Amino acid sequence: MGEDRVSDFARRYLDSQGRVTSIPAKRAMKEALVAWAARRFEPGRPYSESQVNEVLAPVMEDYVWLRRMLVDGGYLIRDDRGTAYRLAGPRSEAANR
Predict the structure, then answer these.
(1) Cα–Cα distance between 33 and 20 in angstroms, integer?
(2) Which of 16, 37, 53, 77 is the most buried (most CB within 10 A)?
(3) Burial class (CB in 10 A: 0-12, 13-18, 19+), 16
(4) What is the pLDDT of residues 23-72, one digit of tens each?
(5) What is the CA radius of gyration of the chain?
(6) Residues 76 and 67: beta-carbon distance below 8 Å
(7) Could you tell me the CA-to-CA distances from 81 to 18, 42, 58, 75 in Å, in that order?
């Protein structure tokens, strides 16, 4: 996701405290929201579901929706048991289209 889209998302959908004010209607802006949220996670660090929620709750009321979007979008990967999450590796250009 390009920096310009993420910056555009931030200008349009974040309040002065950095909280998401609404879920964008356009797909590109939803993708920018998810890319922005993924930056809150440290590479290589495992997170429990409650830790993921703790990271996301301060920035969005519907943090469960955001967690699901991070997983569905390939930004967060769950282990086989579904109990631990980690930030996915660098996304390819094809995945960013």
Answers:
(1) 9
(2) 37
(3) exposed
(4) 999 998 899 899 999 999 999 899 999 999 999 999 999 999 999 999 99
(5) 13
(6) yes
(7) 33, 21, 26, 18
What is the rounded distance in angstroms from the CA atom of residue 22 to the CA atom of residue 86? 26
- DSSP collapsed to 3 states, 58-89: CCCCCHHHHHHHHHHCCCEEECCCCCEEEECC
Tokens linked to 15: 């309040």
Say how many residues make up the chain.
97
| Cβ burial, residue 21 (10 Å; 0-12/13-18/19+) | exposed
- 45 is written with which tokens? 């660090």
